[in-house]
## 1
Amino acid sequence: MSRKYDVTGFGSAIVDVLAAVEDQFLLTHNIAKGVMTLIDEHRAAQLYDAFSAPREVAGGSCANTMAGLASLGARGNFAGRVKRDRLGTAFEASMRSTGVTYTTAPADAGPSTACCLIAVTPDGERSMNTYLGAAREFGLADVKDDDIADSQAIYIEGYLWDAPLAKEASLAAIKTAKGCGTKVAFTLSDPFLMGRYRDEFLSLLGDLDILFANEEEAKALFAVEAFDDVLQALRARNLIAAMTRSEKGCVIARGAEVHMVDAAPVARVVDTTGAGDQFAAGFLYGLTHDMGLAECGRLGALAAAEVISHYGARPEVSLKQLAGL
Amino acid sequence: MSRKYDVTGFGSAIVDVLAAVEDQFLLTHNIAKGVMTLIDEHRAAQLYDAFSAPREVAGGSCANTMAGLASLGARGNFAGRVKRDRLGTAFEASMRSTGVTYTTAPADAGPSTACCLIAVTPDGERSMNTYLGAAREFGLADVKDDDIADSQAIYIEGYLWDAPLAKEASLAAIKTAKGCGTKVAFTLSDPFLMGRYRDEFLSLLGDLDILFANEEEAKALFAVEAFDDVLQALRARNLIAAMTRSEKGCVIARGAEVHMVDAAPVARVVDTTGAGDQFAAGFLYGLTHDMGLAECGRLGALAAAEVISHYGARPEVSLKQLAGL
């Protein structure tokens, strides 16, 4: 392969800010327990000030996948917008420390860097408050056609459809990719997105080479209740469908080809955050390194198993070493 | 369908004899806990005498499937040998009470009717002691070509390979079926059989229209460790493969066609005995009633869910009603 990057990823550049709190904190600050709520900048600043000894780690679904790809030894490039502020600088440093190329220019003005303020209660529940900020400002001007042409694949997170400019940029990136033989991978990201963009995502399928979806997302996309109906619907499309089913493992289909790969063993499931992100990392590594579909699925399962065995959405060990690559 | 029977089944005619015992009973009588042990007639008589207040119910894998088919409303015919003794008469009566036709002539001489002496300890464990007796004597003369020609399908249990005469009879039945357009269904029955008959079963695949196997049996057949390898191996064969994976549901494949059907919900799993037998019943019902493969799988899953929700290997309610047929 003579292309510079294995994968260029497009996603929200978000810093996770975690703090241990008591349940009373949730009541005092009116935080809904165990779910994700979108918040504005004012409230983000308020909560940030209320957090004591917060821990900041770079997050974001696609960015997590890129970190996983780097851990596997792939050459990754991430595109996503931060602001030139403290969190933005931290995100950049963290992204680059993983070995991923990251050159999207930070914004000098406008909303602050996106953050997800996560209140972790003693029972281990994570109550998330997401401020999308600068990540929403990623736009057409940030799409670098040369990078796309120099990548084996691009990978786009469905979450971007919630940001009109980033969606427009994503569609432009897909068009460019199709013009230069770069494969297009997309993740449905969240079942709730189907409520808002189901028809758009269905139309998009014709432009995709690889679709990532967990079972709930895929059922919501086709508005069906049985997984078998999802399987049949996706086999009829001209793409690779990589469907994850938690402890039931994953199913990979490309027309006549169908594979079922078991979940990799995990001694103790600690935190399922990032399982889908890391599955995508393993799968995309395999796909950009000439592996068969079943092998891609096994690598995805392995990466997912690593990340759910500890807190946090990014690998804690070298996936390259873990996979014996 | 103008044929008289939907399915003619060939299997061991066994009466299950269950008794509640204390753990001390297992020690006194040298019974291995929780497993199945083959025993001879003398020991069967000894244990039978030692059982207090035993409960007798007709059993046998294929016979259980035939009972399930009858409960679904199918027209079934069972072939298997008992002796004309008390247990044999009980087996005949029980089989016929389910609505299944059963005309194999009982033996007037030779070994007694097969029985499985099951010692149930207070912890719910079942320690099985099987005496194959008269069931082993099922032979060529018991294969009725007219019945085979008048059935949509025959169904044979792999257990019969442990009885040379019954195996010879089964092979003859398969040959007859192939000569008159009757479909041939076969179950691998038990992973341990692969140790003894793996090569024979592999050769047999070419003569089968439908293969039933649970995951362990199928992996043992092809000597592979990953389920995906089983799937690929069976898709390359010219048959319908119905593979059960316990709580992971079932996978049905016929060449290009692949379906994944979830396990049907069960409030509480009480006793998994008979799950595979009843899955086969549901599946064969669907197949002999012009249903699609996914629908056959769903019916199998439903029948299996019913039988594991209570003690015993045969349905306790009308499966026809449960399935809304």
## 2
Amino acid sequence: MRHALRQDRPAAEDPAALRRPGRPRTADDEAIAGAVLQALVERGYDGMTVEDVARRAGVGRATLYRRWPTKTAMVIDALGRGRFPPPEDPDSGDARADFLSLLRTVQATFQREHHVMRALQLEVARHPEIGVALSRDFVPERLDVLIGVLGRAAAGGLLRAPSDVELLAQVGPALIWQHLALLTNEPDPDLPQRITDLIFTDRPEPRRRNR
Amino acid sequence: MRHALRQDRPAAEDPAALRRPGRPRTADDEAIAGAVLQALVERGYDGMTVEDVARRAGVGRATLYRRWPTKTAMVIDALGRGRFPPPEDPDSGDARADFLSLLRTVQATFQREHHVMRALQLEVARHPEIGVALSRDFVPERLDVLIGVLGRAAAGGLLRAPSDVELLAQVGPALIWQHLALLTNEPDPDLPQRITDLIFTDRPEPRRRNR
């Protein structure tokens, strides 16, 4: 029924291919993820329909129903799959440099996806289950990368506040998002470095100078 | 022309009273501020009209045109006047306690006004001039209260990262907002204390123990 759109996506032309087990799903998954987030930004969570997402992605509705039990699950999965991959830990041996590099990735991602993030912030107010799903199925995997780097930094005595690394890991993303979302759409190029300086000690040695 | 609505607000019944210099403006200002923010949340920045705000506030359109040169100026003024008054610095002599108390106020304000803040975050993407106005005419006055407390704490040697107090002052609001806006509408009661512990040293003395 969607021949006009299917033609744009040769890989999905054979409907049977969509259901073949073991078939690499990446192309479809990416198309669906893109469609879900586009629909979310344009129509909002309440306005987006499975019909609409299926049409945008060039897949059948059954594919969506089969793959996700709820609309929330579909949105969260689309976020993780498409445009918010967990950042990669450089693990270069220099925790401070790794942290700075991760913050720059976070800033670039937030900048690129700010429309999706703004839409999400709006929807969490209307649909608390989205916030619950984000807290459970989305944020931890991404925060863990930052927590890992800060854990190494803490072990090396590089952190000013090593006792609550979990909260500390949220400081960078929170400051970057607040700056971007509330004050300007332009990322502040100095911000990742300033945040790193705030969190890491001035000297790499664990022993601190007394004043 | 708005007699039906004017009748609800006896103070504004005499149009001349609106223009009388020296007249205490508080009641009108509050009504206008409430109307502006309500219109913003319900209709969005593009959808809100001076006509609509005037009707909701029970004042004449001329009053609004006379008072604010632009819609952005009206919104920013409404924010500051109505529901986001600059928090008061307790200045109790205990900077740590003052900071904690301010963070609790910030959390309560963000929780109460989250609809307005979500709407603003959405509008900044569409209307960069709102972000500019927030950065220039709204945020600094509020941040200054936190910067003041942290400045006293830095002088007392109570901060882990005393070198960038301006950025440090943004950490609390950013973490509180991120938690509230993205993850859940329920404020985390432990968060202000955890943030304080992250920012303040463990001991009130400036001299630190070496490990």
